[in-house]
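Worked problem 6 (solution included).
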Amino acid sequence: MPHEEHSECQSLLASLCDYVDGTLGQQLCQEIDRHLAECPDCTVMVDTLRKTITLVHKDREECAECPEQVRERLYKTLNLEDYLKRE
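Solution. The predicted structure is:
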């Protein structure tokens, strides 16, 4: 059973992708921003997600000449195997 102090963290997880994509409403974004200001664990999670998204986009745009095996290992390490199947 989750600790009461982490219930807000679980609520953040439900909206995390939309928050990072910038598709949430302003009020919910403000609530998440307040939570992140007080929760280092969630801040690390959001920063890591943003960096991962940046790496994936950079990989697609700039690593066209990367060996396929290197690219596959990167995607598997980031648990993005499904993304590989879509290409």
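Discussion: Helices lie at 7-21, 26-38, 40-62, 68-77, 81-86.
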